[in-house]
Amino acid sequence: MSNFDDDFPRRYSPPPHHNSGSGGGEHYSFPVNSPLPHSFNFPPHTPSPAQFHSSLTRSPLPHIGHSQGRPAPHHSSFSRGPVEHPIPERSTSGYQPTFTGSHSPRLSPSTDLDRPPASGPTGFAPQTPVPPPQPPVDPARTQELVVPSRFVDGVIANHGLEKDSASALRGHAMVGSFGQELGQADMGTRLETYGLLLSIREELRDIKEIVKDIPELKTKVESVEARVAKAPLALDGTVKTALRNKVQEILFDVKRTQFDSVKKELMASLKSNPTLAKYLGVDKLVKVEPTRLKLQQHIGRQATWMRNQMKGEFVKSVLSATFSPLDNFTELMVGKYLHVTPASLGPEHKYRIAVIRHYLVQNPDLLRIDKESDEAENDESGDEDGENEMPKDGAKKKGSGEKFWVQVGKYLQNQIKKHGDDFAGDRWKLTIEEILAHEADGYKSLRSGQRAPLRDQRRQQAPPGGGNLIHLLNGGR
């Protein structure tokens, strides 16, 4: 049995002498009774349509005439003239001959030749290609919008809208575009406004989620505050020492004339100066009201205790039995309250201490340290650890410790008005010289006579008897 590829040219190729045609192109002629155009049924040994197509596209038929590779027309042996069947131009996809006539089937394109044969007179059934599945399309995007879709996407991005709000905005844009009655400017303004409203709605929705837990949170906070208010203030040794040193520095300031405002001044500094609060180790205590109130009480007790202690030290330093020279007492006080040595400071601290001591000697009623003063010291201050509580009724006892510093403060204010706040300045020079003379004498002259006048009081007459040593030292002036 011969191969179809070898047998096809022999059976269906035109004679060699009809190799060219005249006029409008070349033609391929088949006998009218040829079995191929009528049925196109291949014997069982024939190749598949794909192989047939491959053989056609792989090698041209023999006896192809001229350079264009098409066979010339020939005359049928059963007709008067040649039956011409025009052959179309060869495409790049393969050789596709076309037949004419009432019973001549047309070969399908090369894609149809690759399909398996189907039932029918031609042996080939056309098959419609199935398109790939497409993702669902948002209806709002298929609607022709007044504004570009990218504008709607920009509004969504600018306001950070969530998925449901974004869908609502796109639906609004689609509905507003029906009829195309709105202009782009009008539509864009409406979409921007609606996007803002949607973002506000989302924020309110988030706030509702937070607000619903506020009552429970408030109850918890109040419970914690109540426990903190009842609990004692816990300060370690380092924090206690730092607070005590700061209270001493404020209390012993060279320009201080008011001694009962240390607590208020220090608390104000801690609130306004976070660096100072952190340095003292109380920055977290200042931020919370319950602990801040406890810290304020602790500082108040420290200030009162330091003030009463400083009063006792001044009084003992000028009493006859416990008199301390000015230089020694200055070194003690500067080291204890300012934590430095006198050599590192100017003379103004020494002169200020001398002015206070001179005033105390002139006012012996301030030199008493009685039981009332001791009670005031204990009730108001507590100890260094701040563990002693204030009186239950909240009232401070007005002992001599408080009265003492009130009077000393008023005296310093009056003297500063006269001589200025620079104790080492020229305006204080004569007064300081006279006070230093009393210091050198140990205030013996003042103890034996009346109140010694200061430099601005020397024009007063000496008392009868001339027993005032200061008056005599001043030349009787």
Automatic annotation (TrEMBL):
Biased composition (Pro residues): 128-138
Superkingdom in the source lineage: Eukaryota
Biased composition (Basic and acidic residues): 389-399
Biased composition (Acidic residues): 372-388
Region entry Disordered, spans: 1-140, 370-399, 442-477
Biased composition (Polar residues): 48-58, 90-111
Protein name in UniProt: Uncharacterized protein
Organism for this UniProt entry: Paramarasmius palmivorus
